[in-house]
Amino acid sequence: MSRKRIDLLLEKVTIEAVAAEGKALAHVDGMVVFVDFAVPGDVVDIQVYKKKKNYMEGFIKRLVKPSEHRLEPFCEHFGICGGCRWQPLPYSMQLEAKRRQVEDQLVRIGHLEVPEIRPTLPSEKTQFYRNKLEFSASSKRWLLREENPDSVTNWEGLGFHVGKFFDKVLDIRKCWLQRDPSNAIRLFIKKFCLENGLEFYNIRENHGFFRNMFVRSTENGGVMLILCFAKADEAPRKALLDAVSDAFPEITSLYYVINEKLNDSIGDLSPVLYKGDEAVYEEMEGLTFKIGPKSFYQTNSPQAYRLYSVAREFAALTGKEIVYDLYTGTGSIAQFISKKASEVIGIEYVPEAIADARINAAANGITNCTFFAGDMKDVLNSSFIAEHGRPDVIILDPPRAGIHPDVAQVILEAEPDRMVYVSCNPASQARDLAILCQKYVITAVQPVDMFPHTMHVENVVALQHK
Predict the structure, then answer these.
(1) Are the beta carbons of 38 and 24 closer than 8 angstroms?
(2) Spatial CA neighbour of 8 closest among 28, 38, 24
(3) HSE-up (13 A, CA, CB side) for residue 323
(4) Pick from 343, 262, 310: nearest CA to 446
(5) In DSSP terms, which residues pair with 217 in a beta bridge?
(6) What angle do CA 112, 117, 118 make, to 5 degrees?
(7) Rounded to whole angstroms, how far apart are CA atoms 113 and 109?
(8) What is residue 383's three-state secondary structure?
(9) DSSP type of residue 352
(10) CA 260, CA 343: separation in Å to the nearest integer?
(11) Is the dihedral of CA 128, 297, 344, 307 positive or negative?
(12) Helix, strand and coil in the chain, % to nearest 5
């Protein structure tokens, strides 16, 4: 059944505030209206596309009078690409909106008792701050509004998925998220594929050759490129790999992946090193971290240092504590705090990440960190704690979904003196904190901005045993 079209235009509405999920809000006849890409103070005509009992959603049909706060977006793809939705919003307003987002999730929705939430820590960089990006190829890209499908001849695109459309890719000319040579590499690859007949992937029909690519760049100049192909055709694969390697000698690590699955994830595949070093490296406070093709590392490197510094502050270590670092990734937090702990035990689901963590610890001369690979709810149990010692402090940095209820119960049974919960999703964090607060009180809350111009926020919470 097709969705019924809503023919409702709201005229000369004043935008009041920033809302959740990157939207702004206003009120019309007592009803809340959520609007995309609006700034508080804008006066706009709103085309409504969704109307429910208590709210409506719409987009700006006409900007009647721009807000005094409104900035000109710096990216030509703004409004179509799904990222950087807050470009028109001054950075100070972005930071306050993220602090309020944390407050809403923990206090208004989660009903948790928290101290005054600290102002959001700003990012040192607000452009070109990401150290990792993925670009998808498509043989049937997203068409711009001014393009006529009947006259389009260049259907290939290499860029980002358009929001809410898994099979649509917006061709990107310049992305402001990752510094050079990221844009140049992507544009070169697209040009080479078109000139040499390397077929872009059709996501919906699952055929084609070139699927997607990952670019990692580090603060010390390392560049890792991973090219993903839908089938093992050696000649075109080798031609592209050699061409991009010759054109960009600054690529220090070049991999490829053969992916015949129906999704673009490479987490369950084996990247093949084609040329260069097997990894790139980040440095932090005298420590070096090895990052392989499947390793997790915070995507805003300078801001990761501030995030880990907050976690270390909240842990309040004296040098005598046994610390459990749960969801440790490549062990970056574990090693960062190791000098102030007696022993650190890290647990992570991804075996490759744990292998990197062990290598990193050895390379950094750290002898008081031990790492274990496995599903958290299977590894962390009463037997594990009996064998390795009751933790004095637990640091949690789980995926967006948060922690499994079984893990929460084991933590409550272990009863560490203090906990630090780092989260990229305040909603799941609030849910988990409601469980942990059976035995703990929240003593500090610090939002950290890892992703400027987006609604995403990292949040660090300190807990003390009652």
Answers:
(1) yes
(2) 28
(3) 33
(4) 310
(5) 223
(6) 160
(7) 11
(8) helix
(9) H
(10) 43
(11) positive
(12) 25, 30, 45
Helix residue spans in 27-69 (DSSP H): none
Map tokens 């960009």 to a residue.
248
The yes-or-no answer on residue 193 being catalytic is no
Distance (Å, whole) CA 93 – CA 169: 30
* β-pairing verdict for 280-284 and 272-276: unpaired
Tokens of 33: 């209206």
- For 297, how many CA atoms within 13 A lie in the half-sphere containing its CB? 31
Cβ 357 vs Cβ 371: under 8 Å: yes
**pLDDT (tens place) for every residue of the chain, 466 residues total:** 344 567 899 999 999 999 877 899 999 999 999 999 999 999 999 999 999 999 999 999 999 999 999 999 999 999 888 789 999 999 999 999 999 999 999 999 999 999 999 999 999 999 999 999 999 999 999 999 889 998 999 999 999 988 767 778 999 999 999 999 999 999 999 999 999 999 999 988 989 999 999 999 999 999 999 999 999 999 999 999 999 999 999 999 999 999 999 888 898 999 999 999 999 999 999 999 988 898 888 999 999 999 999 999 999 999 999 999 999 988 999 999 999 999 999 999 988 889 989 999 999 999 999 999 999 999 999 999 999 999 999 999 999 999 999 999 999 999 999 999 999 999 999 999 999 999 999 999 999 999 999 999 999 999 999 9
Out of 75, 81, 424, 437, pick the active-site residue.
424
Cis peptide before 181, with omega less than 30 degrees from 0? yes
Tokens linked to 75? 């990216």
Tokens linked to 389:
């010692």
How buried is residue 227: exposed, middle or buried, by Cβ count under 10 Å (0-12/13-18/19+)?
A: buried
